[in-house]
Structure prediction request, 142 residues.
Amino acid sequence: MIVLEEHIAPILAGDLGYHSVQAIPGVGPILASIFVAEIGDISRFTSARHLCSWAGLTPTHRESDEKVRRGHITKQGSRLVRWAAVEAVARQRADSPIRAHHHRVGERRGKQIGRGAAARKLLILVYYGLRDGEIRCLAKTE
Prediction:
């Protein structure tokens, strides 16, 4: 693990998005490099919702006339980004807002659905970290 970090650090040293994504609790150098490498140019996504849809973390929605069926996540898209987001949720600290969201939804809808909802929320933070170079909601207030 440390050897991999030593090889990744010089390659992504100048990438502002790589460093800003690591500010998210649960995201270290390895998961941040996965997000940067797999997502690539963030400007190809017009919004964070488009990134979540591309990663397959949005719920299915089938509709015909008045009948609506909503289901589990689509799982269409980048399997590696989806895995990294779920893994980062599993590594959350006890006091993080994403972990609180995970447990809040998990108590109501089930553990796996809560994990998927928290992964979607985390991927939204990744989008803004890669796009702006900082995550404003996690920035330290002075």
